[in-house]
Write a structure and sequence with these properties.
Low-confidence stretches: none
Strand order of the largest sheet: 1-2-6-3
Shape: elongated
Number of strands: 6
Distance between the termini: 91 Å
Length: about 150
């Protein structure tokens, strides 16, 4: 039996939904540089995206209740120079601050949790830690040399 290609019919209002509509944009969740309230989330978004687009995107796709959306345009730095000594400008980008609805909070997940520093006696970690401390002690400069390195003999 020959393999035939399935051809989907054009979208018709009220007809069966055979297509998947994906958004034209994507948002990047950014960890903020400064401390923010627990109900505020920072995203890096495309320049064409508006506040209303951000709100609809989060509410319709991710079912996140959104309170307020604030946006700003971050100008790219203009300090670098290329091999011809011409200024090279990084592209501008838009930042959106989304304040979640009443009672909603967001915290970044702790991907790398801190391990307790107690290593049992004789374990590999304990031996390794002692070895590193011994090596650091050996590499410390002699205070009697006054900052002159070891390879520079007096």
């Amino acid at each position: 039996m020959p393999v035939t290609r399935l051809i989907y019919p054009l979208y018709q209002f009220g007809g069966p939904q055979l297509r998947i509509f994906r958004p034209n944009w994507f948002l990047t969740l950014v960890r903020p540089g400064k401390e923010q309230p627990p109900d505020t989330v920072q995203f890096r978004i495309p320049m064409e995206m508006t506040k209303f687009d951000v709100r609809n995107y989060l509410e319709k796709i991710y079912n996140v209740p959104v309170g307020v959306v604030r946006t700003r345009i971050q100008h790219g730095s203009n300090k670098k120079r290329n091999h011809l000594n011409q200024r090279v400008k990084k592209p501008d980008y838009k930042v959106a601050y989304v304040q979640l609805a009443q009672g909603q909070t967001f915290t970044f997940p702790d991907i790398f949790p801190k391990k307790d520093e107690t290593a049992e006696e004789g374990s590999f970690e304990d031996i390794q830690k002692k070895f590193y401390e011994d090596m650091k002690q050996k590499q410390k400069m002699d205070p009697r040399r006054g900052g002159v390195t070891e390879w520079f003999g007096l």
